[in-house]
Structures are given as structure tokens and as C-alpha cells.
Amino acid sequence: MTKERKFGLGKGLGALLNDTPDTSYQRQQPIVSESANSGSLGSISKIKINQIQVNPFQPRFEFDEEALKELSESIKLQGLIQPITVRKVGDAYQLISGERRLRATKMAGIDEIPAYIRTANDQQMLEMALIENIQRENLNAIEVALSFQRMIDECSLKQEELGDRVSKNRSTITNYLRLLKLPPVIQAAIRDNHLSMGHARALISVEDSSSQLFIFQEIIDKDLSVRKVEELVRNIKQNGAKKPESAKKVDGVSFQYQKIQDDLSSKFATKIKMKVQPNGKGSIEIPFLSDDDLSRILELLDW
């Protein structure tokens, strides 16, 4: 049986929910109201699944189908242990948290689901959705950083306030946000788990992107440990040691052109490829995924 792990969401989430529900359902059978109409704040009610709208602020778009099937089979056998959380919207309900549980319950062919009913405005909905997303066990560092940035931008939070919401200190928040300033090729490596957070922390302490790219390539080529990377960073800082632009290349492109390639990739939100010949001639390739993606790129080119 696959069991969902319960995470502590920080003191800020309790304030958002306006009350602290009894979580004893994890140790004993929950007391569930027979209908949503009889449910009160803090109680658990059964709600028809077809009455529940998805959370429009959900930052997560991909769900592991195999894990959903496992959870669905568990729900068929044992029932849903942890209720979802919803808010009342007119005659229907809107999901606040628990989309994975909702999807798995639907997959199990069950038409009702236990839920906490909360009161929440749009900003609280966004905050709670982002906080739940941040607490996912398999979230990579770039996804965490993007969620932090969204909370700052869209919820108008300062870093200290964000730290309270997610129970992390300001320096941790700052380090995650600084990942978003790394060259796109390095961000992609972190996102795809080719680079650990330890490596990333060492890289963000380096100021210029050309040095970051050089160190990144050394990590990839030589499979450097975090300690070795920290030593390399110290040497570069102390001695100002830099490899000549032409000494190393990433994907056949010198670091000078790699910077241009990365900037273009950021601008067009796609992986730009540059090919440069020794005489200075070359080409730039802009791939697109669909007709709509091509239209988006053409608009950016003011075509």
C-alpha cells in the first residue's frame, strides 16, 4: 500500500486556514458528516466529486500516473485516509489542496470524497497551493525556487514573510532564489537532477556567468564532488584564475558564445543552438514544439 507522507507546512499555513483541524484521523477512523450541507468549519464532510472544481491556482501540472494508480488501489482497499481541503464557491466547491488524492479517488471509481471545508480568498488559495507544492517530497530545487518567486511576486510577500509561511530562514530562501539567476543550461541541469543543490550552492557564490559555466563544465566532465567544486571556487576567487575563452567549450560553443546562447534561450523560452566556425561565420537554430509555439516565437521576433 502506498501511503501519502504528511508534511508540516509551517505556522503560516495554520493562520491561512483560520483554524487547526484535529488530525487524529491518521490514528483512528474519522468522524465524517453524511453530507456536505451538514459540514461546519473544521469538520469532515463527504462531497460529491462532480461538485468539486480544480484549483485554478494549482502550480503543479504533471502527476505520476503509476503513483496515482498505486494510490487508487490503496483507496479502493482502505478508503482515503487524509481528506482533501475545499472552499465553498456558490453551489459547488473548489479544491484548495489534495489534487493527487482527488484524481486517485476518481480513478478508483468512487463518487464521494471526505473533505475539510475552509474559507479562503483568492490570495490565500494561491498561497496554500504553492505551499503544498513546495512541500512535495520529489520537488527539485528549481521548482522550489520558482514557487518561492511566485509567492513573492503574486502574493506580495517579503522574504521574511515567505520564510514564516514555509518554515525556512531567510538565507535558505535567498539561496533558492539565486538559483534563478544562474545560466539556463545550469538551471536545466539542476531541474533534471544532473546537478545537486550542494553543487548549485557553490556555483551561486561565483559572480560572473562565464566562470559559472566553466565550473559547471568541469563538474560534468570530471564528475566533481561538492567538496572539489568548493575548492575550485575558492581557487578562482583567490587567484582570479580563469580559463581562456577558447580553452573550453560547451556543446562545441566557446564560453563567450555560450553566454549569448543562454541569453537567447531565456528570451525565447526554448533551447537555442549556435554553431560557430573558426572564421566567425555560423548559424542560430530556434526550435519550436508546435504551430502555437512557432507563433509565439514569431511574435517575439516582431515578425
From TrEMBL:
Residues 45-134 form the ParB-like N-terminal domain. GO terms for biological process: chromosome segregation; positive regulation of sporulation resulting in formation of a cellular spore. Residues 19-39 are annotated as: Disordered. Keywords: Chromosome partition, DNA-binding. SUPFAM superfamilies: KorB DNA-binding domain-like, ParB/Sulfiredoxin. InterPro entries: Chromosome_partition/occlusion (IPR050336), HTH_ParB/Spo0J (IPR041468), ParB/RepB/Spo0J (IPR004437), ParB/Sulfiredoxin_sf (IPR036086), ParB_dimer_C (IPR057240), ParB_N (IPR003115). CDD domains: SPO0J_N. The keyword Cell wall biogenesis/degradation does not apply. GO terms for cellular component: chromosome. Belongs to the ParB family. This is ParB/RepB/Spo0J family partition protein.
